[in-house]
Write a structure and sequence with these properties.
The protein is α/β, with parallel strands linked by helices. It has a single domain, classed as Alkaline Phosphatase, subunit A (3-Layer(aba) Sandwich). Helix 8 runs parallel beside helix 10. The protein is globular and about 60 Å long. InterPro entries: Alkaline_phosphatase_core_sf (IPR017850), Sulfatase (IPR050738), Sulfatase_CS (IPR024607), Sulfatase_N (IPR000917). Keywords: Calcium, Hydrolase, Metal-binding, Transferase.
């Protein structure tokens, strides 16, 4: 019965949609900004006389095992090289969703504190993601500061190329208005790679680009503009570059030459691919053998059950997805080459991660028809399917949206030759998005403000990763917390409690079972009660509650959260 209930809940998430996921709660609170305690944190200047440049690169909807250095068969030589000369984290976490991750990453706060507990408002969006309460306004608020604002105040040039997705309904929400000197990219959450048009089109600084020059591919364009920003800088001041790719988020758009490299390579199917990736992860030290492989959900068919035509189609879908990742890696190589040529690579702190686990949106066997793939005008959920996403998240269960390890785990690569002596190290120290802001503050010597934007700024939540990177620290946080769409989790040392929407807590020992195969909740009720109390304490002090109410309740029509009794 428990297995059936789990599968029923999962199935409700795998519907071919990209619309709304949130239960309504009452008791609205004031829309006025809240006052928060003044932060007492101060970050000392780094020991090095020359402050480093900072490059932050984010992939979009990429699974835990999709890079070569994390177990993939997809060639990613440039990221692999950065990993071999830097540090790889095996237990780094995001929020399980695009814009909440970006809100947390940019502010050093939990996403609810920044006002994006769910999704963001966009121009011409039929759904209004402002729920009328502090944690769910659908836009980044003014009780926080962005990485760009803090680093700019410390004398850094600040550049961004790629996906913003932190609100765009009004002009004051754009990147240029939140600390970036230059911007080229998307304000929205997704668009065509080949011919983006408004309202999901390209912006250059504060101006919409009405028509892009062809041939065009977003991954190339974002990187080219990022490099141009660096080349145009004439003074010796350090820079902060945020390069936020849309790869490999749907739609399935890739360049023909890249696709041809992968066609036919996935005819062994998703089950064989998961096992292949797991063995590589074990061999390279990313995953301990004892964790094993999470079971393929029963609602997913076996590869052998597909006829030849469907197998050919699914091979093609995965080939396009692999091509998207390959093209992203090629572009990261272009950026690294530019840093080498300018003599800046050694003194650049470069961080790479993904915004959530692999994406199951669009359906079990993918969204859209095979004829829709690579059609420039198609910008919706033309996707590779939950079966391939399950392989992308090897060895974990769960996906984008949920708080199982497959939803919240991301590769994290840190490369900083001038500041990190460890080369090729793999660390299992847990960390998450709120730790990026304090890390950048520490290396830059910037000071986190207590006042800004005409408001009191909320105290920073995270801790610097530098003790992990330079001294091998084993623990940063006593407790770690997650919530998205009422999927929740809390981690305490090796123990993790996770709850799907409307379901009781499950409990897993991540030291021996990070693939979350053996629920220990019934064995340790006292620990579950302790973690439940701690999670609720966090949720009630970090604007997870109250939830508010959607302006238009599409949930009644779609019945997304039907749960078996």
């Amino acid at each position: 019965m428990k297995k059936k209930r789990f599968l029923t809940v999962l199935l409700s998430i795998f519907l071919p949609v990209t619309t709304v996921f949130l239960l309504a709660f009452s008791n609205l609170i004031s829309k006025k900004p809240l006052n928060h305690p003044v932060s007492s944190q101060h970050w000392p200047a780094p020991k090095a006389a020359k402050r480093p440049n900072i490059v932050l690169i984010m992939a979009d909807d990429m699974g835990y095992s999709d890079l070569g250095c994390y177990g993939s068969e997809i060639p990613t030589p440039n990221l692999d090289q950065l990993a071999s000369q830097g540090v790889r984290f095996t237990q780094f976490y995001n929020t399980a969703r695009c814009c909440p991750t970006r809100a947390s990453l940019m502010t050093g706060l939990f996403q609810h504190q920044a006002g994006i507990g769910h999704m963001t408002k966009e121009p011409n969006n039929a759904i209004n993601y402002d729920y009328g309460v502090y944690g769910y306004r659908g836009e980044i608020n003014r009780n926080c500061v962005t990485l760009a604002e803090v680093l700019k105040s410390a004398g850094y040039h600040t550049y961004m190329a790629g996906k913003w997705h932190l609100g765009s309904a009004t002009a004051d929400l754009r990147p240029r208005q939140r600390g970036f000197d230059r911007f080229y990219g998307l304000l929205s959450g997704a668009s065509s790679y080949l011919d983006p048009v408004h309202p999901r089109g390209i912006w250059s600084d504060n101006e919409p680009v009405e028509k892009v020059s062809q041939p065009f591919y977003t991954t190339d364009a974002f990187t080219d503009h990022a490099i141009s920003f660096l080349q145009e800088q004439q003074d010796p001041q350090p820079f902060f570059l945020y390069l936020a790719f849309t790869s490999p988020h749907w739609p399935l758009h890739a360049l023909s030459a890249d696709i041809e490299r992968f066609r036919g390579k996935y005819r062994q199917g998703w089950d064989a691919l998961r096992e292949q990736r797991l063995q590589k992860q074990i061999k390279t030290g990313i995953v301990p053998k004892q964790w094993g492989l999470s079971a393929r959900p029963d609602i997913y068919p076996a590869w052998a059950e597909q006829d030849t035509t469907k197998q050919r189609e699914m091979d093609y879908r995965m080939a396009v997805y692999a091509a998207q990742i390959s093209r992203m890696d090629q572009n990261i190589g272009k950026l690294v080459d530019q840093l080498k040529k300018s003599g800046q690579l050694d003194n650049t702190l470069l961080v790479f991660l993904s915004d959530n686990g692999a994406c199951q949106e669009g359906g079990v066997l993918g969204g859209g028809q095979i004829a829709d793939i690579n059609v420039p005008a198609k910008s919706g959920a033309i996707s590779y399917g939950a079966v391939w996403a399950n392989a992308s998240n090897t060895p974990f269960k769960g996906f984008k949206h949920v708080s199982y390890e497959g939803g919240i785990s991301t590769p994290l690569i840190v490369h900083y030759p001038a500041g990190i002596s460890q080369k090729g190290k793999i660390t299992a120290t847990p960390g998450y998005l709120i730790d990026i802001m304090p890390t950048f503050l520490e290396v830059s010597g910037a000071t986190y403000p207590t006042q800004g934007n005409g408001q009191t700024i909320q105290p920073i939540e995270g801790k610097s990763l530098m003790p992990v990177l330079t001294k091998g620290a084993k623990q940063l946080h006593d407790f770690m917390f997650w919530e998205h769409e009422n999927h929740r989790a809390i981690r305490f040392g090796k123990w993790k409690a996770v709850g799907m929407i409307g379901q009781p807590w499950e409990l897993y020992d991540l030291e021996t079972d990070r693939t979350e195969r053996q629920n220990r909740a019934s064995e340790k009720p006292d620990l579950v009660a302790k973690l439940d109390a701690k999670w609720n304490e966090w949720a009630n002090t970090h604007h997870v509650f109250p939830k508010g109410t959607m302006k238009a309740d599409f949930r009644k029509e779609w019945n997304f959260f039907k749960v078996a009794n």
